[in-house]
Each structure stands twice: as C-alpha cells, then as structure tokens.
Write a structure and sequence with these properties.
Keywords: Cytoplasm, Isomerase, Rotamase. Belongs to the PTPA-type PPIase family. Helices cover 56% and strands 4% of the residues. By secondary structure, the protein is mostly helical. 21% of the residues are buried.
C-alpha cells in the first residue's frame, strides 16, 4: 500500500496498481490529485476509446455480429449471474423490505463475486482478480445507504478497464463492450 493508503500493489507478472474506490475529492487540491492520477488517465483513455468505437459502430458501414466474442460472452455471463442474484433477492411487493433485500443482494455479491470471476477467467488469474470483485460490487451502488451515483458508474468502467488490462477483453471486443455490456 502506498503512503496515502489509496493504491494496493499485488504480485503479478506486471505491476497492477489497484486504486481503492471511494469519494476522495473534497477540495481543489484533491481534484488536482485526481486529475494527475493513473486511474483518471485510464478512465479518460477508456471513455475516449469507447466514444470512438461507438461512433464507428453506428456508421452504416459498421458490421459486427450481435453475439460478440468469447471474451464478451464471459463478461456478459458475469453480469448475467449478478442479475440473477439481484432477482433472487428482489423484495415481494413490500416497500419496507427493499433495504434488507438490497443488503442481502450486496452480501451475496460480496461473498460470491470473487469465486464467480475465478470460475469465469480461471485459477491462473486468481491473484490478479482481486480488484475485479471490488469494482464489480461498487458498480451496484452503496450497500448501506442504497445510493447510486457517478462513483458507481465509474466503478463499472474501472471493472471493464481492469478486464482490458488483464487481457480478458481485447481490442477486438471494443464494439461489443459498447453495444452488449453497456446495453
């Protein structure tokens, strides 16, 4: 962990910094720090690239199969499993049961997401998937306050960026990241 307790280094074939997700911009100096961070650079490159892909995708000449690639299928399967967990914990018409149901969903997400990701992407990558469950979990809102906002959307983008960095998604998958995974 670095001196600010914001980046954790895990042993891997390449150094992969994992930034802890959370709101850290409280004043102008914090914003400057964010703008100079690797996470912000990754996010900017990812969003710019996805914008280019999206522009190409919806040109009349763009052709792509609707199913995507094997990599996209795996990522979509992960998201499909999370959707099943959410459905499993859906409250039965009682509004007062929403908070416990959302808490159960998040507990299930927290306890099962690492195993799901290892099962999907294999044991050799297990030590490199430590960041993926954290980003995936944070993508679905705050378990305690039931809030959902930009930091959760950014977490989903960081989940996808991590899949690219770990080569679980490649350049060949870019069209499908926009049209399948974000859809």
């Amino acid at each position: 962990m670095d001196k600010d307790n914001t980046v954790i280094w895990f042993p891997a074939s390449a150094n992969l910094p994992v930034e802890i997700i959370g709101r850290r911009v409280y004043c102008r100096r914090d914003m400057l720090r964010w703008e100079c961070s690797q996470a912000q650079a990754d996010m900017r490159v990812f969003i710019e690239r996805m914008n280019v892909v999206l522009a190409e995708r919806y040109r009349p000449t763009a052709t792509a199969t609707p199913d995507g690639t094997e990599n996209v299928r795996k990522a979509a399967e992960v998201l499909g499993q999370v959707t099943q967990w959410a459905e499993l914990n859906r409250p039965a018409r009682n509004d007062f049961m929403v908070v416990p149901a959302f808490g159960k969903f998040h507990a299930m997400l927290r306890s099962k997401s690492h195993d799901l990701l290892v099962r999907m992407y294999g044991r050799p990558a297990e030590h490199r998937t430590v960041e993926l469950p954290a980003y995936l979990e944070k993508s679905f809102g705050d378990a305690d306050t039931m809030e959902y906002g930009p930091e959760h959307e950014i977490s989903f983008c960081m989940f996808l960026i991590a899949l690219f960095k770990l080569h679980h998604l490649t350049c060949a998958d870019e069209h499908y990241v926009v049209s399948v995974l974000f859809d």
